[in-house]
Amino acid sequence: MRIDHDIHINDMAAASRYETHAHDHEALLSYAASGSCTQLIGPRLWTVLPAHAVWIPAGTPHAVAAGPRGCRLRTVRFPLPVPDDLPATPCVIEVSPFLAALIAELGEAGGDEHRRRAALRFLIHDALARSPLLDLSLPRVSDPRLLRVTDALQADPSDRRSLTAWAQLADMSRRSFIRKFQAETEMGLQEWQRRLRVLMARQMLADGASVTETALSLGYATPSAFIAMIRRELGTTPGQLFAAGPPAP
Predict the structure, then answer these.
(1) Domain HTH araC/xylS-type, which positions (predicted)?
(2) Region 1-22: what's the mean pLDDT?
């Protein structure tokens, strides 16, 4: 890993991770140049893909886990005070090919190239302020009983246990389980599992898995059922999600 005043450059090996920590004096734009990772930021889980970056405000606790093919993570640093036109809360930023190229250039700039670095930072700030924000996160639970359920689903999103069976795993009555899960996530378990499958599908497809492989891994009986779910949730097909490939560095 290389760290300088402007950027962290970290090629994470498959399944490697950083435990929960925070950067009190800087905000971060965490971008996957290739591969993917999952970030636990505050009360939500986020996926970082080659076309996306996660914005992490200063002082926000977060943990990072690399995807199955590792992750070339490029994290741009924004020391305090952060400009007012940048987000105040964690979010996913859609990374254009232009913004991806700027981040790559910043990573290549020499430490003594002060004017070049300043120009790149100005352009990155401007591009970031104009970038679309995406809703690509999932609420996390804090109750240890509910964590048994969400941890099991993250380990195997194809698990088809009934709501009653999940309540039993949490050692709760069905009614209490439904009420508590809704209170912590503002959604039902079925919706949460579907949302998890969408995020994991994006990660698997970005890492090069086929549509059929992804569909079966996530518990869909046929690829067509999986394609229908992605079209319904994202307004596109799995094949179109990454048809153009990641942004060119």
Answers:
(1) 147-244
(2) 84
In sequence order, the 6+-apart residues with CB closer than 8 A to the CB of 109 are 6, 116, 117, 120
| Alpha-carbon span 140 to 45, nearest angstrom | 6
Domains of the chain: 2-134 (2.60.120.10), 141-241 (1.10.10.60)
Return all residues near 212 (Cβ < 8 A) that are at least 6 apart: 223
Element containing residue 190 per DSSP (H, E): helix 189-206
Q: Which residue has the higher pLDDT, 176 or 228?
A: 176
Burial 213-228 (b: 16+ CB within 10 A, else e): ebbebbebeebeebbe
For the chain, the average pLDDT equals 87
pTM here? 0.77
State phi, psi for 22 to the nearest 5 degrees: -145, 155
- Give CA–CA dist 127/145, Å, rounded: 43
Q: Which of 193, 205, 209 is nearest to 158 (CA)?
A: 193
How far is Cα 105 from Cα 165, in angstroms, rounded to an integer?
A: 52
φ and ψ of 195, to 5 deg: -65, -40
